[in-house]
Amino acid sequence: MMEKLKGCLPYAALLLGAAYLYRGAGHFQYAARPGELGPDVWPRAILVLLMGVCAWELLRRVFFAGAAAAPAHPQDPGADGREEGTRHTHLLVGGIALTGLYVLGMGALGFFLATALYLALFMLVGRYRRYRVIAATSLLGSLAFVFVFMKIVYVSLPLGVGPFKQLSILILAALGIR
User: Fold this and answer.
1) What is the residue extent of each domain of the chain?
2) CB-neighbour burial class of residue 107 (10 A; exposed 0-12, middle 13-18, buried 19+)
């Protein structure tokens, strides 16, 4: 029972933190424009999703923790062929470093190019090797993010500098974003 409670602690803390932040997200001072969403909508929407995920995980851990599926063959190291408990710390460190570089490079490269590179390199760091899928996912994913953030959510994204800015402007024009 104590192990079950320890496993619930991070989700309970996140749930409480999200509830606290949700309350604070409703107190932005802004001039409301008719027909446009206020600055409180997206943070609150994300916090509601976070609270929902935390509540679900708490319920799952409390009421359904023993229902986890056992490996297909108990003698096997794991259902996916890997030894249980194998850690790939170097992949984790690579992903963290890549995320830091993404944040640092976004101002110079612009959101579109930095995101496309980040997505591609993250998949490579994660040992995915279908290069056509990586290229398509990175480019289409980056275009989708640009469209959603700039056309739907109205978030201003970094365009980059020099030739990267020109690339960003061409992409925005192609997507019909001014």
Assistant:
1) 2-28+39-65, 89-174
2) middle
